[in-house]
Amino acid sequence: MSNLLYPALKDVEHTIPIERLNVLRNQVESEKPNPSSQSLFNYAWGLIKCKGHRYQQEGVDILKQLYKDAPEIRKDCLYYLSMGSLKLGDYASARQFIEELLKIEPENSQGIAMKSVIEDRITREGLISLGIAGGVLAVGVGLIGALLRRKR
After folding, report:
1. What is the pTM of this model?
2. Between the chain's N and C termini, which has fewer beta carbons within 10 Å?
């Protein structure tokens, strides 16, 4: 595994405790009715960094809205949208977000590393799916063969 890939993988796998998320949530709550884009971004980042799909999905939803509403943080939103989508298993969206970031900043080392992590997951999941499909096919062929032999 390359040195470039390792930090991105570490970033994807890093989680934060719920207590830290609560600090970020409290900041957003204290700024209501109009929390700052930065506070919302920090909270979305925390949600993505928490364990649990429900948290991660909420983080992705907030980042999608911020992407539309806060052009000054779009690049950061794209990176974490990619990470959140990856954690949710939505590889197509993860790839789309990171490719959009790399169109804006082709030399972005975090983006390049994240793209490698995404491609690795897509390849690995594809191979696992092929293995499962192959196993199911082999069992099916075996059952059909056994049934045909019984009929004779």
Report:
1. 0.78
2. C
